[in-house]
Design goal:
translocase; about 260 residues; alpha/beta; Rossmann fold; binds adenosine-5'-triphosphate; 4-stranded antiparallel beta sheet; cell membrane; Co_trans_ATP-bd; ATP hydrolysis activity; globular; single chain
Length: about 260
C-alpha cells in the first residue's frame, strides 16, 4: 500500500482488544474495539459503571492498556510516547475546575502550547485563536474562578484546542449547563474542525452532534450504529439502561437537524 493510502485509512483513534483491571483487581474493560476516523463526531453511550471513563483515561495514557492496544493517528499510547499522545488527544473533563488552575484565562489557555515550546507572538496568536473558537476572547484577562460554570467549560475546551489536538474527547460536555449554555456549546462544537469523541448520558445531545454512537456496557462495545438508529431501537436501549427524555422522538428530532 502507498504511504498516502495508509494515512487516509489510519483511524485517528484505534482501540483494539483493550482490557484493563484496576489495582484492586476490578476488571473494568474486557476487550474494547473502537475506531474513530478523521472528521467524525462519535458519541460514547452506556450506563453508569460501563467503563466509559476508564476507556477515556486510556486515550491519553493516564491508564495504560493491560491487554490490547490504543493508537492515535498510528502512534501507540505508551509511556515513551506520552508527550506527543497528550498533544494529540485533548480531553475535556466533566469538571472544568480540574483543568483550570492559573490566575487568568489567558495563562490557562497558554499553558499547554507554552509547554510545547511556543513563545511570544505565536503563543499569543494561538491563545486568541483558541478563545475565539469558544467565543471567550473578551474574558482572556479574567480569573477563571470569576466565570460562570458554562464559561469555565468553554475555557476548558479552549485549553485543549490550543494544543491543536487530533481528537477532542469530551466527558459529559452538557452536564450542569442551563439550556441556553447547552445549546451555545453545541453550536461551538458543531463548528469546530476537529474529530470528536463525546461521552454523554444526554442522548438528545448525542443525536444533535454525533452521527454515530457506540454503546459500552460491561466493559465491552455492546452495539454501535447511526445515533438515530441506536436511539430508536427500544430493545437495545432497554438492554443497556438507556432512556430518552419523556416524549423525545429521535426520528422526528433527527429530521429537524
Ligand atoms: N479506581 C478504581 N478502582 C477500582 N475500580 C474502579 C475504579 N474506578 C472505576 N472502577 C470501576 O470500574 C468500572 C467502570 O467504571 P467507569 O468509571 O469507567 O464507568 P463509567 O461508564 O464512566 O460510569 P459513569 O457513567 O458512572 O461515569 C465500575 O465498576 C467502577 O466501579
Amino acid at each position: 500500500m502507498h504511504r498516502e493510502n495508509a494515512s487516509v485509512t489510519t483511524p485517528v483513534l484505534d482501540v483494539r482488544g483493550l482490557a484493563f483491571a484496576y489495582p484492586d483487581g476490578h476488571q473494568a474493560l474486557f476487550g474494547v474495539d473502537l475506531h474513530v476516523h478523521r472528521g467524525e463526531r462519535v458519541a460514547l453511550l452506556g450506563p453508569n459503571g460501563a467503563g466509559k471513563t476508564t476507556l477515556v483515561l486510556h486515550l491519553n495514557g493516564i491508564h495504560l492498556a493491560g491487554a490490547g492496544s490504543v493508537a492515535v493517528s498510528g502512534l501507540p499510547v505508551t509511556k515513551a510516547n506520552i508527550k506527543e499522545i497528550r498533544r494529540r488527544v485533548g480531553i475535556v473533563f466533566q469538571d472544568p475546575d480540574d483543568q483550570l488552575f492559573m490566575g487568568t484565562v489567558r495563562e490557562d489557555v497558554a499553558f499547554g502550547p507554552a509547554n510545547l515550546g511556543l513563545r511570544g507572538a505565536a503563543l499569543d496568536a494561538k491563545v486568541t485563536e483558541a478563545l475565539a473558537k469558544v467565543g471567550m476572547e473578551e474574558f482572556a484577562d479574567r480569573p477563571p474562578h470569576h466565570l460562570s460554570f458554562g464559561q469555565r467549560r468553554r475555557v476548558a475546551v479552549a485549553t485543549v484546542l490550543a494544543m491543536d489536538p487530533e481528537i477532542l474527547v469530551l466527558d459529559e460536555p452538557s452536564s450542569n449547563l442551563d439550556p441556553a449554555s447547552r445549546r451555545e456549546l453545541a453550536d461551538i462544537l458543531r463548528d469546530l474542525d476537529v474529530t470528536v469523541l463525546m461521552v454523554t448520558h444526554d442522548l438528545p445531545y448525542a443525536l444533535e452532534l454525533c452521527d454515530r454512537s457506540v454503546i459500552l456496557d460491561g466493559g465491552v462495545v455492546a452495539a454501535e450504529g447511526r445515533t438515530v438508529d441506536v436511539l430508536s431501537n427500544a430493545d437495545l436501549m432497554r438492554a443497556h439502561r438507556l432512556e430518552l427524555p419523556f416524549g423525545f422522538d429521535p426520528v422526528a428530532a433527527a429530521a429537524t437537524l
